[in-house]
Amino acid sequence: MKSSIDQTLQNKRVIITCGTGGVGKTTLSAALGIRAAIQGRRAVVVTIDPAKRLATSLGLSGLGDQPTDLTPQVQAAFERAKLNGASLPEEMKGTLAAIVPDTRKTFENFVRELAPSPAAAERVMSNPIFQIFAKEFSGTNEYMALERLHSLHIQNHYDCIILDTPPTRNTLAFLEAPRLLAQFFDEKLIRWLVLPANKIVATGMKKAFSILEGLTGASFMSHLFDFASGLFSVQRNFTANLKRITELMESPQVGFLMVTTPTPTHQEEVDHFIQTLKKQGLHFEGIIFNRTLAYLKDEVPQDTARAKNPAWKEAYDLIHALQKRERRVIASFMQKPVQVCAKLPELARDVHSVEDLFHVALAFDARSDFNTGES
Amino acid sequence: MYSVSKKIAVTLDRNLVFVHGKGGVGKTSVSQAIALGLAAKKKRTLWVAIEDPMRPPGELLPQGPNLWHLNCSFKLAFEEYAGLKIGMPRLTHLFVQNKLMQYLAKAAPGVHEIVLLGKIWYERTRYDHVIVDMPSTGYGLAMFQSTENISHLFGGGPLHKDAESMLKTLRSPEETGHIIISLPEEMPLRESLELNDFLIRNFEKNPAAFLVNRVFPQINETLELSPALTERINPLATSVEDYAQMRSWLESFNLRIWKDAGIHYGALRQVAPDLQDSESPLIRLLCEQLQREAYL
Q: What predicted TM-score, i.e. pTM, was given to this entire model?
């Protein structure tokens, strides 16, 4: 019987991996891409990766906005693993590519596309408020990732698109991005800013504006009005665009995976995330526990000197305590009506090549009936 | 002689301490442990989280003798700041309740960060120590960049003046300490150097202290790696013993990233989790470690 993570890789056209920083999402997403390729999918991993983490772990000097084909490297690792006796299909029919989108460029293209004229686009982009907004508004990176996802989806070059979401302070930030950006384009409010000042008759609004001017200064106000008229010009197209993206996110072709580590501190957040997904009508595929230690076989050290060394004893005790906690955390998740779809072991060294990642891809503990004991 | 403990102790003894680092390195527990230790020295201490979605926003919660916790909320801080600036309650109310102003406060770049930073800056005078659990790297940086943005956008206005005063405090080694936390893993260590470059650019006269968290027991007699370890193909470990050896070696290897950059750092050992899954014994154990190493 197929395991649940493999079913997800087989059935979903788009897989979005979410999780907080430090859970190893980028490496895991890349390994999922390899696993999909082994299964014969035309896979692409898209990662918003300011730290160049993905390129480093693939042993590449860089990855860019355009797809980098990794199929030859995956193919080579596949052949070697087969020679070493790994249980793999007869041949590798799938492909793998990786993209690290340039979100700034995507954003500028996005504005150009939405704007009614090239001049209007330039006007928006040269505004200082826009420039800082594009760089820092939380939600921009996330939204641009979805933009990119949408265009890959339409192009049809790939049948399994894995999106590694940008590192966020909390997992919900990604889901909130479209709504945040939509708020920004709120037509009713922007209208106030594009109205000539002498047309504002509501006293409350007049007063509020004059306080704002007192706080921020006249030059900010003029940038603001200018920015607002720019926004107003792209507003209608943006709304249509947002609708398309929301429809894609909600489509049953898109599955969300939650990546977490088996520690109790994450439990509450995971629950919260799953509830929010359901509320928004998005399709939750399951949890993947990364950096698990239960797979380590517990043997009495061969070296008796080691067994007596206090530093070694401390290390053993620590690992045992971590394994125990891990079993407890995973068991408590198994009690909930939540799908746990794979475990991925903690690695003993850093990943530095496609071949390393290939080993990781094979290391998913993905039995459909897996229990919480040792593997 | 240069002493790491001294550098950390001096940094943590300042009025305002920012705990920086990428997501998942344990900033929350470490900053909480620092606050607990300072409170134990009978100092009025405030431990600050920035918009932690899992805690109630804006409330000041007593956490023990001399210790309070504040989960800084933008909405409340904005109202408070507007109140201070506008003065008249009726006008303040009109301003903060205005839909368009709420929209602008939320959307205008930098305002969000400057208001949160302003709240912390304002609170500092009421305590001996304010320890700030900074949001993970990217967002945390935006908070400091906002002070630059503000002067760029609001040249000359009252907002600009406030931002300048805040920046002056953050730059002053008499008033503010910056500490960078990392794990002994390659990526967090490398990213912490980028973070440090940013801090140096902004606060050059006020360099950060460094602390590596969750260090595994050092069990290797020598740093030389046996061929069996370097030539292994599969990045997975085979047994508890193998993992312990690899992990211990890997951590010393990774920490060369800091050593090569000339960084002197303190270290906190990984604490075995307790059976109750409760955070408070962990915080206490971390606090005891900070005291034992003379970081507090």
A: 0.89
